[in-house]
Design goal:
Blueprint lengths: L1 H15 L7 E2 L14 H12 L11 E2 L4 H4 L12 E8 L5 E2 L3 E3 L4 E3 L4 E2 L2 E2 L21 E6 L6 H5 L3 H14 L10 E3 L7 E3 L11 H11 L33 H10 L8 H4 L2 H12 L10 E2 L6 E2 L4 E2 L7 E3 L7 E2 L12 H18 L9 E2 L21 H7 L5 H9 L2 H11 L3
Parallel strand pairs: 1-15
Antiparallel strand pairs: 2-8, 3-4, 3-7, 3-9, 5-6, 10-11, 12-15, 13-14, 16-17
Helix pairs in contact: 2-7, 6-7, 6-10, 9-13
Length: 435
């Protein structure tokens, strides 16, 4: 009888334990359907906002890079990556620290400062402002110059839901197990929608954001010139004929940036090539990938915090669709020096807006952001087979090129790759082609 009772109790414990004890696998695919965070009709409506082309009459510009989110995030579906690259520049001051550029526009009538991003496009001269020329141009003094490819956003709802401590512990374990040869850097960054609150950065090539809503507000202003409640100040008011913010709430109470964030949170994780993944070559390559140390930074599996956990300064509660979910990004979302860093410092007011940046300036000034100038966030490898241009700058066009460019913390790993037999190298490349 006691045995039967014990078995019954054990069965109850196993079936009634919190979902955190039994993580579920993240849904994958490129079918434009929701991961469960929203119903498919809502997800489709949010995608329409994401895909919408902004016009000057909507507040586009005055300086901008793209006319829609999809323009920079669409291959093979909305939310994914693309070939679009943005330009960032700067220089070193007399103290050896990074300085953002000062770029004169309108024949010197105004100087754009406080941002490393240089917009490629402008809305004027136009019929309304025939005599205003505001195109940004880089001067010879800006000797630090870099291009960065747009990143895929697919599956980023799961990334956002990873607990800060998970990433902190990962960085600690990396450093310990490699005897300090590989040490991912954790950056605590402002949550723009929760002024005064910080979290572990994980979005953008420099981990400049921890929140997808913060990320959306940043991109809407800096890439499209659309002011919003998180980023209410135009980069320049020359040629601007619109009241601020340009992005205002609709009948449902949500602004475009809310729809963008919800759309990304509801995207499925990139799916593997099932045919290649099940093959002997990819399986062999995966073992070698791990054996030579690639998986130290290109971490296969992460698990999100439980549903109900409040994140982003308490402004977002992890829903059931994102809670206690295991996903496979093949990345650690930490900052590393792999010899390809672009020298750009990201902790500038362009990403957080003037008000939040001023509020957090004392904190930010005390952090070791300067040490991250030549570091880049580990590129998650899910979906890498769909990208013809690789690394942060797109300068590598084959997987072998990308592997051989790894230096710095990854030097010993890339050297191990070079020492492998030809067929072993091909197995690793075959594995990467399955991701």
């Amino acid at each position: 009888m006691r045995l039967l009772i014990s078995l019954a109790v054990l069965s109850f414990i196993l079936t009634s334990a919190p979902s955190a004890s039994h993580p579920t696998e993240a849904p994958t695919g490129f079918d434009n359907t929701s991961n469960g965070l929203a119903d498919d009709a809502t997800h489709e409506a949010d995608q329409m906002r994401f895909d919408e082309v902004e016009l000057v009459s909507d507040g586009l510009g005055p300086l901008y890079n793209a006319q829609s989110c999809r323009e920079c995030h669409q291959s093979p579906v909305s939310g994914a990556a693309s070939q679009v690259a943005e330009l960032r520049v700067g220089h070193l001051g007399p103290d050896g620290h990074f300085r953002t550029p000062e770029i004169p526009i309108a024949h010197g009538a105004e100087v754009i400062s406080g941002r490393s991003l240089v917009n490629d496009r402008a809305i004027c001269p136009n019929a309304a402002f025939p005599d205003n020329e505001i195109q940004e141009r880089v001067s010879d003094t800006e000797t630090i110059r870099a291009f960065r490819l747009s990143l895929s956003l697919l599956g980023d709802g799961f990334v956002e839901a990873v607990a800060n401590q998970t990433l902190i512990d990962l960085a600690t374990q990396q450093c310990k197990s490699s005897h300090r040869k590989i040490c991912g850097q954790v950056l605590q960054v402002p949550i723009v929608e929760a002024p005064g609150q910080m979290s572990v950065g994980r979005f953008g090539w420099k981990d400049q954001h921890a929140s997808l809503l913060s990320f959306a507000g940043d991109a809407y202003l800096n890439e499209m010139g659309i002011t919003n409640r998180l980023q209410p100040d135009e980069v320049t008011n020359i040629c601007n004929a619109h009241s601020e913010p340009n992005d205002t709430p609709g009948p449902d109470g949500l602004s475009d940036i809310d729809h963008f964030a919800r759309f990304v949170r509801a995207t499925k994780a990139p799916a593997r090539d099932s045919q290649l993944a099940s093959g002997a070559l990819a399986k062999k390559g995966e073992g070698l990938f791990d054996k030579i140390g690639c998986a130290s930074c290109h971490v296969e599996t992460l698990t999100t915090a439980p549903a109900g956990t409040k994140i982003n300064g308490g402004t977002f509660t992890i829903p059931a669709a994102l809670g206690s979910v295991t996903f496979h990004p093949w990345g650690d979302f930490l900052m590393h020096d792999v010899g390809t860093g672009d020298g750009i410092l990201q902790a500038t007011r362009e990403h957080y807006g003037k008000r939040v940046f001023q509020m957090m300036s004392d904190y930010l000034s005390k952090q070791d952001f300067e040490s991250s100038r030549n570091k880049i966030r580990t590129a998650p490898l899910w979906g890498v087979r769909l990208r013809p241009r690789l690394m942060h700058d797109g300068a590598s066009v084959t997987l072998r090129d990308a592997i051989q460019r790894h230096r710095g913390e990854a030097m010993q790993v890339s050297q191990k790759f070079e020492k492998l037999k030809g067929e072993e190298q091909e197995a690793i490349i075959g594995f990467l082609k399955s991701l």
